[in-house]
Design a protein that fits this description.
Elements lengths: L1 E6 L4 H13 L3 E4 L10 H13 L5 E6 L3 H7 L7 E3 L3 H9 L5 E5 L5 H13 L6 H11 L1
Parallel strand pairs: 1-2, 1-3, 3-5, 4-5
Bound molecules: D-ribose.
D-ribose binds next to α3.
């Protein structure tokens, strides 16, 4: 399992926290930046994460900005990306079960790090339910 991760400056610390946790789970990380809390533009990093995923450089992706909103919008501009911004464990679970989200977005300034870890693990461990959800995800991917 390999996960590509990116953030802007406001999501940098959370990216580092989650990356350390993922490495502890034995997951390989492709970190495409940013590399500090110096101000950068989240659209660049969200799009780059989506493109890396769709190019096959990783199995899943995670993105982080201040709220998770801007960088998730950017990631979702890449065809084939289903990026879900989550703020609860239940949302993280359904992001996989119902939406088969291939990128998870978390707000670095709005989320407790412990919750971020629990949402990450829940998303990774949940399984896509298929069935009617597969039809809907298929419709998304046609857009
Ligand atoms: C940066 O100040 C902030 O706007 C950005 O991290 C993000 O929250 C945008 O959605």
């Amino acid at each position: 399992m390999k996960i590509v991760i990116s953030s802007d400056h406001a999501g940098y610390k959370m990216k580092q926290t989650v990356a350390e946790h993922l490495r502890g789970r034995g997951i390989e990380i492709l970190d495409i930046g940013t590399d500090s809390e110096e101000s950068v533009d989240y659209p660049i990093y969200g799009k780059a994460c989506g493109e890396a995923l769709i190019d096959g450089k990783a199995d899943l992706g995670m993105v982080f900005c201040g709220t998770g909103i801007g960088i998730s919008i950017a990631a979702n501009k890449v065809k084939g990306v289903r990026c879900a911004l989550v703020t609860s464990v239940e949302m993280a679970q359904q992001a996989k079960q119902h939406n088969n989200a291939n990128i998870l977005a978390i707000g670095g300034r709005t989320t407790d790090p412990e919750l971020a870890i629990r949402m990450t693990d829940t998303w990774l461990d949940a399984e896509f339910e298929g069935g009617r959800h597969a039809r809907r995800v298929g419709l998304l991917d046609e857009m």
